[in-house]
Amino acid sequence: MTEHRDLETRIAMGRGDLPADLVLKGGQVFDLVTGEMLTGDVAIAGETIVGTGAQYDGTHEIDVSGRVLVPGFIDTHLHIESSLITPLEFDRCVTPRGVTTAICDPHEIANVIGSEGIRYFQTASEHTLMDVRVQLSSCVPSTEMETAGARLDAEDIAALRGHASGIGLAEFMNYPGVIHRDPVAMDKLRLFEGGHIDGHCPLLSGRDLNAYVAAGIRTEHEATSAAEAKEKLQKGMRVLIREGSVSKDLHALQPLLTERTAPYMCLCTDDRNPLDIAEHGHLDYMIRTLIALGTPALAAYRAASLSAAEAFGLKDRGLIAPGLRADIVVLDSLESCRATMVFCAGRLANAEAFGERDTVPIVGRNSVKAPTVAPADFRASGNREQTDVIGILEGKILTEHLTETIAITDGDKRPDPKRDLVRIAVIERHGKNGNIATGFVRGFGMKSGAIASTVCHDHHNIACVGVDYADMALASNRLSALEGGFVVVQDGVVLAELALPVAGLMSLDPFESVQDQLGALRDAAKTLGVILEEPFLQLAFLALPVIPALKITDRGMVDVNKFEIIS
Known about the structure:
The chain has about 575 residues and is α/β, with parallel strands linked by helices. The chain is built from 17 helices and 31 strands. The strands form seven sheets. An eight-stranded mixed sheet has the order 20-19-24-23-26-25-27-28, sandwiched between helices. A six-stranded mixed sheet has the order 3-2-7-16-17-18, with helices on one face. Helix 8 (about 205-215) links the parallel strand 12 (about 195-200) and strand 13 (about 220). Helix 3 (about 105-115) crosses helix 4 (about 115-125) and helix 12 crosses helix 13. It is elongated and about 85 Å long. The chain starts with 6 loop residues before the first helix and ends with a strand.
């Protein structure tokens, strides 16, 4: 790791009385305060920038002539588990794209194995090149309507405080619990009263939003329209523009991001997989897309770094300026936002740096304890032909509540591919009760076969969709053998699969291998007729606990507007 320099040495190197440890020579620094391009070298002492706007000598010097230097990017809200790779692999995958700080919520692994999962992320943060900040998961389980693998009460969260990676409490998804003063929610909020609490309140407005913000919740990443985001800004929240693999809100919120609003807006990915990262990018993709859509470069880069640092109280970063952490991205141009070099706390992000890290003991093995299922388990009971159906809105985690007439044949409502009515099932996999619930979903376009996954927000039971019960059974049972993952089945044959043995959420393979396997899974899903670009993550979000329509849990289909089981 980069050597930490003492106070006197930093001052001497900043004044030029001693050669700096590293000097970046000949580039232009994009100043996020004035919007100007500054000439002069950037001098670094250990982990810290000590000089800009002047000429310096260094023990090591790198010529960055013709390049633009910007502060390292800060992803203000993400679940690293959704990258399907371990934190160290995520670091190797994303840091070279300019992300030097990631503020993560290990909510997914916590819902499988509890405190052990959060401690795993805290330990991993001690070994990553980027600065991984680990928020403490607030909602484990997310609601009482589902069966998760663990439970974290206020005293459990309190026991996790004090790690160097901590900032505060992660997204408070149970917004009904906040606005109706649920005692369990109140206990957790009191732990962090006066500190940082992340928000999660899709479509909340008016007095309910006032009540939510009055709880001390200061950030929000669930806005899906400019009007929603504007109201949240007006209530004093910092709005995080999200562009994940399923939830794609950048285009909707882009008109709101201006030089006037940029100090109060940030960027985040929430859930983004390695295939999207490889094909499109990460925060770098968001920045160049915003600029291409007409956002001023100053606003885009402020949101990506300075505004993010200030929103989360990270006072040591966000600018290329003396005294701040040497998180620096070297670009060909502001518009292209393609990193040619990335420095994290003064350390060049290259193969050597990633190769020198210690490994972190893996947790969450053998977490899939689901019952063996048979084709008959996927039959849909009920004596009403009027049937509730989940309607997918591609590119959103929001769903529609649809109603369709489905005939009952031999006591079963069969899938109807001609009408795009596909069976969806959730199978409890934590060894708690063995529940199996079924329903219908529209939007996959599936004509045959089945797909199944243990990535199922936020309880992470097995989610399966299909039109053939035998294929659904094979796909679901195969996940137990894999210790979790993704499976595509057609006519009794496994077409593609990806093992995710770390809590049923993350692979032990390098990210390049995971990219290849995800590509094969996507191609296999298309042979079933699936029309969604991200079918597995879309499937995962059909179980998300607070979306304004229907969700499917291991206890049945739930109307989340009324918070009650309806089938």
